[in-house]
Structures are given as C-alpha cells and as structure tokens.
Amino acid sequence: MVPMEKTLIVSDSCPACKILLEALKTQEAIxxxxxxxxxxxxxxxxxxxxxxxxxxxxxxxTKDMNGETARKCxxxxxxxxxxxxxGAKHQGGRGKR
Length: 97
Fold this sequence. Notes:
The protein is globular and about 35 Å long. Helix 1 links the parallel strand 1 (4-10) and strand 2. Helices cover 33% and strands 26% of the residues. The chain has a single domain (4-60, 70-84), classed as Glutaredoxin. It has a 4-stranded mixed β-sheet with strand order 2-1-3-4, with helices on one face. By secondary structure, it is an alpha+beta fold.
C-alpha cells in the first residue's frame, strides 16, 4: 500500500483555520494531519503547485518510489475531517489567504 498523508493548509489570519485546528486539538485528532502554514516556504510551494486560492485547504500527499504527488482532498474527505473535528461550526465556503 502506498503511504498517504493528509495535510491541512492554514493561515494565521484565517478564522475558519483557527476553529478547525482548535476543534481537532480538542478531539485529540490533530496528530493525524500534517499542518502547513501558507506563510512558510513549504506552504507557498503547495499553493503554487496545486493552484490553491483559499484556506483552509486539505490535500493528500502520496509518496512512492517515483517521488511525491499531491492532490486536493475530495469534498467527502474534507467532510470526514470536519466530522472528526466534532462537526466544527464553520462548514461553509472556504476562507481567504
């Protein structure tokens, strides 16, 4: 099986990001995700590679012997994260960068 990692792209200025991260911490589920801030070089790279326009965003990173690939999470995968966070109140549209 190819290893997959769910990554959450967040921003310090994003209220929805703060709510989601706090909810994941409360549910003790935060360690299941790799967190990348858009202010970091890694965050900027992900934004450019995947054409992300808003945060929070979920991506799935797959690593195999050919390297690393990344894709946006499906709406079902994002819904699962929100459920895992205890049904975080902000489930609507995406925030801003």
